[in-house]
Amino acid sequence: MQAWHEFLQTLEEKLSKTAVDKWIRPLKIIRFDACNLYLEPHDPFQIGWLEEHFLPIAKKSFVNANGHPIKLHISSGEKKSSPLEGTSNVDPIPAFQPLTFESDPILPFCTFEQFVASEKNKRPFVSFARLLGWNALTNKEEETRESCNPIYLYGPAGSGKTHLLMAAANFLRSKKKKVLYVKGETFTAHVVNAIRAGVMTEFRRAYRGIDVLIIDDVGIFGRKNATQEELFHTFNTLHVDGKQILLSAHIHPRLLEYIEDRLISRFEWGITLPLEKGDDPVVLAEVLKSRSAFYNLPLKKNLQEYLLKHFTSKTTLCRALYVLKTSKEEKSSVMELSSLEPLLKKLFEDNAKAALTPEKILDFVSTTFGIKSEDLISKSKLRESVLPRQIAMYLLREELHLPFMKIGDIFHRDHSTVMSSIKLITQGIASQDPDVTYHMNQLRTLFSKL
Question: What homologous superfamily is domain 358-448 in, according to CATH?
Answer without folding.
Answer: DnaA protein, C-terminal DNA-binding domain (1.10.1750.10)
